[in-house]
Amino acid sequence: MAQSRLEKIGTIYSRVTGLMKSGAIQSDQVPLWYSVYQAFPPKYEPRWDRQVESPPVRKILYQEDVVRAKYYRTFGTREVVNLFKVEKSTCNIFIDKYLDLSRVGEYSEQELWDRTVSALELEGEEL
């Protein structure tokens, strides 16, 4: 064998290169990825001991999430959600109405909440 089989010594690219230089692999037996790797080498060498740079995960919080949390805190979960039906849940109807009212007028958060509750009760939605 041309080189060690231990994964900690060299990369797959260096192993295939060594096999080609030693004559263990003929030119017609070279893997397809080899020419692509040569044309577009990675930015960092893919070694087993390389530390992965992971950027911090950003917290994404939408306005709907805040409204949904307050809805479930206030009214709880009394309905069963069926994912096979196209119908919107009461929570989603509430959120849509809340966002519609927030676009229409300039209300405080509590006033907007109260208007949404009263509007849905007038429409016959059971909260």
What is the topological layout?
Layout (H helix, E strand, L loop, with lengths): L11 H11 L9 H8 L23 H13 L14 H15 L4 H14 L5
Helix pairs in contact: 3-4, 4-5
What does the model show?
- The chain is mainly α.
- 48% of the residues lie in helices and 0% in strands.
- Helix 4 packs across helix 5.
- It is rod-shaped.
- The chain starts with 11 loop residues before the first helix and ends in a 5-residue tail after the last helix.
- The model has no long low-confidence stretch (mean pLDDT 88).
Alpha-beta content class = mainly alpha
Largest sheet: none
Distance N terminus to C terminus?
73 Å
Low-pLDDT stretches: none
Tell me, briefly, the overall form: rod-shaped
Query: Could you tell me the strand content as a percent range?
Result: under 5%
Would you count the extended β strands for me?
0
Which range best describes the helical content: under 10%, 10-25%, 25-40%, 40-55%, 55-70% or over 70%?
A: 40-55%
Number of helices: 5
Order of helices and strands: HHHHH
Overall mean pLDDT score? 88
Our Rg estimate from Cα atoms comes to: 30 Å
